[in-house]
Write a sequence for this structure.
């Protein structure tokens, strides 16, 4: 089995000594799940378990304005929720089992919109977007709910939006990793032009997997559509991870433990 | 594959949101290696790699007064080095891959003495002692090197010491985990009465593995004795870990990911 090691500072009072942590195995991909507006981390928890079982470290989170902080729902802005997502990313990236070069972000609806924007700020290798929502760039710091009152988002989402004109789409256009886009066939919140805008923006992605769940509404109200989304996600991750592991195997160099090499530095003083 | 999960606080500026980290697989044992006086963490690094390859998280460290802090050699006390060991233990115990109920400590000579004392302060399941040294309890805060000048340690080590009369031996007497004791046949620093005192003190250990490396001196100066110690250590850990994994399998309960169960809490609000 391969091992990997890193220096650690052992803090002793106000001093520190040097240590080396040696851990078996290779690092794993990290996957961040971002729920949609009005949901909680429960939306992705069962799916996170399935993806973790493929050999990934997964993180779900409750966006500000939801779950325990639902009292902030009226005031929370996109900027605030984006910082939530960045905070989640940092936890994953700092996790000792996570390969920082292999981080995925998956989001539904508003969470997909935030996930797309994250790719312009942090290293992301895989981007999964289920019915990603779209908002005008203006009013970035305004409460998210105020946007629905002050901007005609319904009209905005009825036309194709060129990537240059929208922050999330610009991020997609710059993205060079692998993309999954999942549409719901009967989605009256995120209609086909939004999906078309995202698909077109992802022109430079390393790979694109687009699927439409037949008969599904925006919220995946039926059990069948829920199962289909989970299956799509697991299938996509299986394919992506198989590719990533092939890359790792080809680049791998085994650290050879050389027990004989330690003699000259073994203890030599009286104890 | 099993997964396990834990709550995490995602820090966002001065606020925090709730997150859940889902990680594949079961936790692993943690192993702390404590070098002897006058050595450095290099003494155990190659061995740590071999033990990590068995599926453990391993930590080596440079005790205060050694390596980068060798300028403190004249002043460093047992108390200070014990705090080093405690600091290393905390890093292992806090490591997200480590099962806090399955921590081993292994030490040579002075490091074995410190390892034995650690067991009275922290939860330790496996204790590995190679030629563990013995010191009088008096002068605990004195510089370690001063002990050799002011106490007749050579004489102290020539007689059997009852467990009640020595802090390290009292810790061994209270220890209920598994013990490995490795003697060097031609050791003029830690002579046979010291090993006999440790063996007798470990009367209540769950298991005791005592081995003597034929022809070896205290420092394991020959390649052959170095290899034999490494082989003994790896063999002992293999046996201990096999037992521990058998225990885990018998107690394991698989978390069943129930994708259908998420429907009612999936997103239901407009995005």
């Amino acid at each position: 089995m391969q091992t990997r090691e890193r220096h650690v500072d052992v803090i002793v009072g106000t001093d520190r000594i040097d240590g080396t942590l040696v851990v078996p195995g290779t690092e794993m991909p990290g996957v961040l799940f971002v729920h949609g507006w009005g949901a909680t981390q429960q939306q992705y928890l069962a799916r996170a378990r399935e993806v973790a079982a493929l050999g990934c470290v997964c993180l779900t989170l409750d966006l500000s304005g939801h779950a325990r902080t639902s009292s902030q729902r009226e005031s929370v802005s996109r900027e605030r929720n984006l910082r939530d997502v960045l905070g989640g990313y940092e936890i994953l990236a700092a996790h000792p089992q996570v390969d920082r070069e292999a981080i995925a972000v998956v989001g539904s609806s508003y969470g997909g919109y935030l996930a797309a924007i994250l790719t312009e700020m942090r290293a992301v290798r895989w981007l999964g977007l289920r019915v990603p929502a779209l908002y005008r760039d203006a009013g970035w710091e305004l409460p998210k709910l105020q946007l629905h009152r002050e901007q005609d988002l319904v009209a905005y989402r009825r036309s194709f939006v060129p990537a240059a004109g929208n922050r999330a789409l610009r991020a997609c256009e710059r993205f060079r990793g692998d993309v999954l886009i999942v549409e719901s066939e009967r989605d009256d919140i995120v209609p086909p032009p939004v999906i078309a805008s995202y698909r077109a923006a992802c022109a430079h992605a390393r790979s694109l997997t687009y699927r439409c769940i037949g008969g599904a509404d925006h919220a995946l109200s039926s059990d069948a559509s829920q199962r289909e989304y989970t299956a799509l996600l697991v299938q996509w991750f299986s394919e992506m991870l198989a590719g990533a592991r092939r890359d790792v195997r080809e680049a791998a160099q085994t650290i050879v433990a050389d027990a004989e090499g330690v003699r000259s530095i073994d203890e030599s003083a009286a104890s």
